[in-house]
Amino acid sequence: MKTDTGFSGLEAAIIMIAFVIVAATFGYGVLNSGFFATQKFQDVTYAGLKQSTSVAATDGLIRGVYDTNNGVLTDLIFILSIPVTGESIDLSKMIYYYVRNSEEGTEIPLEHVTPRRGIVRPGESTRIHLDLEGAGVAGPSAGGSFSLEVKPPTGASTLIQRTISSGYNGGLIA
Question: Nearest Cα to 146, choosing from 72, 92, 90?
Answer without folding.
Answer: 72
